[in-house]
Write a structure and sequence with these properties.
With about 210 residues, the chain is an alpha+beta fold. The protein is built from seven helices and eight strands. It has an eight-stranded mixed β-sheet with strand order 1-2-3-4-5-6-8-7, with helices on both faces. Helix 2 packs across helix 4 and helix 5 packs across helix 7. The N terminus and C terminus are likely disordered.
């Protein structure tokens, strides 16, 4: 295979939106990570009205039109190969729930660029390990051979002071490795940088 063919194959694999499913555990409802859709706009606006969530997010979605534009931006990220964004939903007897949270992997087009995870959980779903389980699931996928992110360093960033996100990162095998200074407007606060060591990547791949 030529270098050009390999690049085209990688790009094709990158642009395909995927759905990730958590294996059921002791009868508990499993999580599904799926691409965001326009039908999620109302849920996005509702979740973004939460004061605690707004205090940590740079982007605030106050209207359905804003939410739909945000969803379109997530689709463009998949197409560009720079962002894989997932709505976190839960299975149930009546089918999947409305979105309970969000998790995304972002990177640049450079082959060896780090992949950074970010996430939030809706107010009604906090305290149920939704973020931890979603991060574990997406980390397994990112490190797997079939992922466009395979072989890249896995990182996670969150605002300094966001203790819940920090605990989630540490519990999922992302130790704290540094602090990034504030860089407004994209990064209005200093951020903790967590980096998954190679043994963590190997572990989550084996457990997939």
């Amino acid at each position: 295979m030529s270098t050009r063919q390999a690049a085209e194959q990688s790009t094709a694999r990158f642009t395909e939106q995927v759905t990730l499913r958590e294996a059921p555990d002791h009868g508990a409802a499993a999580l599904i990570l799926r691409p965001w859709t326009d039908s999620d706009a109302d849920a996005l606006v509702r979740h973004h009205a939460d004061a605690l969530l707004r205090s940590w997010l740079v982007t605030h979605l106050d209207t359905v039109d804003e939410a739909r534009r945000w969803v379109a931006a997530q689709r463009r990220g998949w197409t560009a190969g720079t962002r894989a964004a997932f709505a976190v939903v839960e299975t149930g007897p009546a089918g999947p729930s409305a979105p309970l949270g969000h998790i995304a992997l972002t990177t640049t087009a450079a082959d060896a660029a780090p992949v950074r995870a970010g996430y939030w959980t809706a107010a009604e779903a906090r305290g149920r390990r939704i973020a931890s389980r979603a991060l574990t699931l997406v980390s397994r996928w990112a490190a797997s051979d079939g992922s466009p992110f395979a072989g890249r360093p896995l990182q996670l960033v969150h605002a300094v002071g966001n203790e819940g996100s920090c605990r989630t990162a540490l519990g999922c095998g992302y130790p704290l490795t540094g602090t990034l200074p504030a860089d407004p407007p994209a990064r209005p606060r200093a951020q903790h940088l967590h980096t998954a060591p190679d043994h963590t990547v190997s572990r989550v791949t084996r457990e997939a």
